[in-house]
Specification:
4-stranded mixed sheet; 17 helices; Group_II_RT_mat; Group II intron reverse transcriptase/maturase; disordered C terminus
Length: 451
């Protein structure tokens, strides 16, 4: 963070009730250019069809008019292109909004300036869309809460159509609590009201914020900071009989309780609280589960072989024990996520099977490294090994299907680390040496999961 933004952060931390009345001058051409450079080159274009490279080349032509329009409160936010991506395990699709590249860079810059303030206000229970606070810290915190506390019940919750349900009036009221600069208020209002282009027609936006813009992540975190986090910490916890903790990752959150009676009370109050701000719980993803160090003993009394599991951020959490017999929270890749990853990898290998062997290995390993980086948590080694083995078998199948000569590819030639006496065909053609080297790269697993 630059010196001027650091000064804003220090002032916001020291004076939690201060309204900042002059912030627009921190949105400078240098910051916009820096954020424009951080946008991936292959990012989708907006309604104007301008690519990232084109936006960089024409930067000098559009940056000054944009900055001037912000200062005179006349900025007109471009329409947002609506696209749909499939939801895992469902027939319905998730709507995403694609701003123009220039508008995306401006959103990133504005979010950077506002984050200097709100990062001082956000509570430790909030994760996602924040610097250095991704899914792994959220999972580690949840593990610490359950394994280290007297937790017996977990309310697993998810908000229904969260990004599409944000009330614009409440968003602006929450922003105005800390931001008194009318230029930024006008800028955020224009983004909220930007039209949505879908099927060739532009329709106005009356509520919600498009999922896909940088400013949307900050506004959603700010919205739930006031609606959920502060309410739970300052109002709810003091009225409960036992221990209670909240862990939230943007719109996915779990609340841990010591007593079931507390969980039931909070569950009813939570529906009323969310309804006041135009939000609602997703019934199919919201459930109260007995979970924790005492759940195994109680499961036997209730006629179950094992305690129920909970689902959070693509991982299934279950009750387990370590080698010393003490309670621990086990984690493994959720079944539908695992199936989706395998299907995606198989589709990739079918599509690139006629590429050079080294190019295939590079494409496969890019996807595998991303999978390992996210799901590579302690205790999840078995799921990662399964992905590795399935990829290895399917890749050999794709290589064997390329031509009649390729059908001689044996496991010994694909895996050069085996002993020479186990290899049926010792005459390895040059392309297969390349494939063997690539196979060893595919087998690399992150060391962190072996702990």
């Amino acid at each position: 963070m630059e010196t001027k933004l650091e000064q804003i952060a220090v002032k916001a931390r020291r004076e939690p009730n201060l309204r900042f009345t002059s912030l627009a001058h921190h949105i400078t051409r240098d910051r916009v250019l820096e954020n424009l450079s951080e946008i991936p080159k292959r990012s989708a274009a907006g309604v104007d069809g301008q690519t990232v490279e084109a936006a960089k080349e024409s930067f000098e032509g559009w940056i000054e008019p944009v900055l001037q329009s912000i200062h005179r409160q006349g900025y007109r936010a471009p329409n947002i292109r609506r696209v749909y991506i499939p939801k895992p395990g469902k027939t319905e699709k998730r709507p995403l909004g694609v701003p123009t590249v220039a508008d995306r860079a401006l959103q990133r810059t504005t979010a950077e300036v506002l984050s200097a303030i709100y990062e001082q206000d956000f509570l430790p229970c909030s994760f996602g869309g924040r610097p250095e606070l991704s899914a792994h810290p959220a999972l580690a915190t949840l593990n610490e809460v359950i394994a280290g506390g007297m937790i017996g019940w977990v309310l697993e919750a998810d908000l229904k159509n969260f990004f599409g349900s944000l009330n614009h009036d409440w968003v602006l009221r929450f922003v105005e609590y800390r931001v008194g600069d009318p230029r930024l208020i006008s800028l955020i209002r224009r983004w909220l009201k930007a039209g949505v282009l879908e099927d060739g027609a532009v329709r106005p936006s009356e509520q919600g914020t498009p999922q896909g813009g940088s400013i949307s992540v900050l506004l959603s975190n700010m919205y739930l900071h006031y609606v959920l986090d502060l309410w739970f910490e300052r109002v709810v916890k003091g009225r409960l009989r036992g221990e209670a903790r909240l862990v939230r990752y943007i719109d996915d959150f779990v609340i841990c309780f010591q007593y079931r009676s507390d969980a039931l009370r909070v569950q009813d109050a939570l529906r009323l609280r969310l309804g006041k701000f135009g939000l609602a719980l997703e019934p199919t993803k919201t459930k109260l589960v007995e979970f924790g160090r005492f759940a195994q003993k109680h499961a036997g009394k209730r006629g179950r072989n094992r305690p129920e599991t909970i689902y959070f951020l693509g991982l299934t959490l279950y009750c387990s024990r370590n080698q010393k017999g003490n309670f621990k929270v086990g984690m493994r890749t959720e079944k539908s996520r695992l199936k989706r990853s395998l299907l995606s990898l198989q589709e990739l290998m079918r599509r690139i099977r006629h590429y050079k062997i080294s190019d295939q290995a590079g494409e496969i390993n890019i996807v595998l490294r991303g999978h390992y980086a996210y799901y590579g948590v302690a205790g999840n080694l078995r799921s990662l090994v399964k992905v590795c083995r399935v990829v290895e078998r399917y890749w050999r199948k794709m290589l064997c299907s390329r031509s009649w000569a390729s059908r001689r590819l044996t496991w010994g030639r694909l895996q050069p680390n085996q002993r020479a006496d186990t290899v049926a065909d010792t005459k390895t053609a040059p392309p297969m040496r390349e494939a063997a080297g690539a196979s060893s790269a595919v087998n690399q697993l992150p060391k962190s999961v072996v702990r």
